[in-house]
Design goal:
Layout lengths: L17 E7 L4 E10 L2 E11 L5 H19 L3 E5 L7 H19 L5 E4 L1 H8 L7 H11 L8 H25 L1 H6 L2 E4 L2 E4 L1
Parallel strand pairs: 1-4, 4-5
Antiparallel strand pairs: 1-2, 2-3, 6-7
Amino acid sequence: MAPAPLVTPGTAQAAVPTRILGIDPGLRVTGFGVIEQRAHVLSYISSGVIRSGEGDLPSRLKIIFEGVRELAVQFKPDCAAIEKVFVNVNPQSTLLLGQARGAAICGLVTANLPVAEYTALQLKQAVVGSGRAKKDQVQEMVARLLSLSGLPGTDAADALGVAICHAHAGDVLGQLRTLAPQLAGRGMRVRRGRLVES
């Protein structure tokens, strides 16, 4: 006797839209992208950059913090996603980027947003299908996935890409959570976002 299917046709509820704010942190330029997800359809809302100017470090971090918090107030997202810092050859650059990222995260959490974090590799795999994708490939695929008339700038494209990555991750995790009782009956469970044997 064949096992029952995991998904029963015709049982999906009407999809509730989820608005996602993506952030590509940077000390000079922080990219942002806002998308809305309804079921498996992604819609573009807005994108752009926050420029921190040429002031001292604390002033620039304040601009990033306030700018990100204002985006959360203006666009009213349900959640946020931010790109993780990779360790650069230059430790000073990595430390500065980490501080800019921290300021952005503080702006998000003070707006009471749940924040998910993704690596550049995860972003590229979600958007292009390859972790070795180049910046221009990410720009082109973001424009295609969101039906944009032109290419977004690189910082905005990365921010939109991290939002798309979060939308895809949410789809998969949501489906796995929905299937949890049936998976348990088959000796499987979801652990840290992965399907494992019980």
